[in-house]
Amino acid sequence: MTLSAFLFQAINGLSTASGLFFIAAGLSLIFGVTRIVNIAHGSLYMLGTYIAYSLAMKIGGAVGFWGGIVLTALIVGAIGALIEVVLLRRIYRAPELFQLLATFALVLVINDATLWLWGPEDLLGPRAPGLAGAVEIFGRRLPSYDLFLIVIAPAALIVLHFALAKTRFGRLMRAATQDREMVGALGVNQAVLFTSVFALGAMLAGLGGALQVAREPANLATDLAVIGDAFVVVVVGGMGSISGAYLAAIIIAEVKALCIAIGVVDLGFMSVNFSKFTLVAEFIVMAIVLIARPYGLLGKPQGNVRSVAEPENPIRPATPMLKMLGAVILVLLLALPLMAQTSPYLLVLGTDVLIAVIFATSLHFIMGPGGMHSFGHAAYFGLGAYGAALLMKLAGLPMLAALLAAPLVALIGALLFGWFAVRLSGVYLAMLTLAFAQIVWALVFQWEGFTGGSNGVIGVWPAAPFDKSGAYFLLALACAVAAILLLRRFLFAPFGYAMRAGRDSPLRAEAIGIDVKRIHWLGFAIAGCVCGIAGGLFAFAKGSISPEAISVTRSIDGLVMVLLGGIQTLVGPVVGASVYAVLQDTVMRQTEYWRALLGVIILVLVLAFPQGIAGALSSLTRKLGRKSGGAA
Amino acid sequence: MSEAMLSVDGLQAWYGAAQILHDVSFNVGRGEVVALMGRNGAGKTTTMKALMGLVSRRGALRFNGVEIAGLRPFEIARLGLGFTPEDRRIFSELTVLENLDIGRQPPRRFADGAAAPVWTPERLFALFPNLGEMPNRPGGRMSGGEQQMLTVARTLMGNPLLVLLDEPSEGVAPLIVEQMANTIIELKKEGLSILLSEQNIHFARLVSDRVYVLEKGEIHWQGTMAELAGNLEVQRAYLTV
Which chain A residue lies closest to B19 (C-alpha atoms)? Predict the structure, then answer.
């Protein structure tokens, strides 16, 4: 690599940083004031590109292009305001997990709406009128439009900075970022403030997306790709800091540019292609920053703004009734293979359900009793699945040995990632776990020689006697029962009490001698390990494993299952996973727009039960109790 | 006195599932300084938060002729009920002037049409000369006493009719305590009503007209300040530690 090639990539990186800055700044401002991590921010960015494309094409010329970009920003801002008023306003007091899920549901809905409106093809906009040429830099040609992008991000930063410092709106935003309740008690209508902030943030995302129209085609995969990058930028820069967002956008873009510039390096025994590390590189930067500065480069610890939550009831051992019910269900399930002749598909579905149950129960273990909201549980599923598949294919392990190794592979991953994750809490933990899951996904996707890349590993079939669907179903059933009983045993052991104590009051738990981080680390590792079983079973059930099966949607599926069943009960994840797996299999496959359908289901769930289903039930019973108590 | 500035009847309040206030009733007349006294945990701060709508509450709450029990905090503040929290809650990244600006509200009138005092940064700097010396200092770099003054000044920027002063003497130097007492007397002269929460009878004696004594979320005694000062039994039962 020559110096000039490197410098050229560095300049190219600056223009990429521009788009990242706009979306990250919007995300950061919204989080600062409303404390909502808007996962749908990437979708607003994507909408920006599509709308700007349509305006540029319909109106045409310089007016259509430049005027279209400005108009797009305003339209997306208005869409943002609408989202805030219709949806988010109702869930500001809900647990943050629900807020994350609600905005993820928006991602699904907006993605299908975009598909419906614009179709599945990539749409490349026109060249920018007036900036269609290129300039020669370091012997290469750089589009003048890229230079424009390099300049516009710092210009926007300066304008935003000035607005925050010198206007009343800016002062209110800064004050609300620190203590929004006090701002309300001083007579400021938070509803108006929140809507304006959300609209401003959406406008920035829309502008960022619109500016890309002359550079990259509008693409339906942009939303999740760009939100991942934006998360990293915001976390690295510090939540709520727009200067931090700019700094981080530059660092991330430059690290990626560096990877591309380095290219293939011959290490003697093997050659490493650094340009394949771009996806992993940004998450490594984030992990390093989070460990050194948990609140980001320019961020500050955020005050606790959550209203006093309803205290969680202690979990109770199963009643004799429940045990009886469990035994009856188990007997029925054991009898299921007998029906294999009449409806063989039932066993396939049954196996899917059991895998989902193991997945959801292990996620619930850290989410509920552990209080750690992992948004990246797919990582351990993926490690188990790929671990088992690769050990059988490459190391020649027999099927059962490979299946037994699956949880061990996942355990190693969970020990490594968990060590970092338990140092954080709340949305930071959610984002870090998501980042780790993306690392696993990116590794699998980019390391073609080892994992098969996007094709995955195929021909992973179970050996006899498990090659019959009935026998395999029984194997999955045995695994599921063992996993559930094992996790329950942990929860009713002193370890489980310590984990819940650490969740409810970390300081008091530490004061009575519990090493909270260590306990939570162990809990994280146990959950990851059990999840690995689900991954291993999945690989052998399908006969293959591909990156698609371990993407972020699987993590979200798990969250929905747990919430569907209710986070405060131990039976919850089992019920939730069963219902969801059957729903997914029956309803979702019926429509092309299953994403939107899933999104709507999540939204209904979140809006109807902002405290969770179990939370709604328990507060209902408390209310009834209070009423009858008053009458007595 | 036609109607009390603030009248509270049967106030109950909760933190999450825990009921803190069981039955609290009192009133504050126009231009009156009323002290709410009691030990730590008696419910003084919760009473103030309940009045502002910051905790879930039930009861009949009338302020300046308006029922406020169903209103949200910003609506209550806009009726002219000012709140200075015990922990001050200064915006630490904003300067003194910016903090004052957040509290700014339009001038307002009492129910009978009389104009309430109007506050500007200049007038407040005259009232708190320390603040006038540091208009551009960030709130986070001020001493506890200076922050206490700023939190009162910030509330006054909203031109309130009644101020809820939560433990203004707590954790500040004796000199500042004295200054606080003078400020309260000054505000009373301007025609403002004040509900003061206080554990310290020496401070309360300097400024208050009447007293309500709280214990475990209920009013246990009420009377004039002079009566309380002479009643060692009540003081021993509910105030001395």
Answer: A626
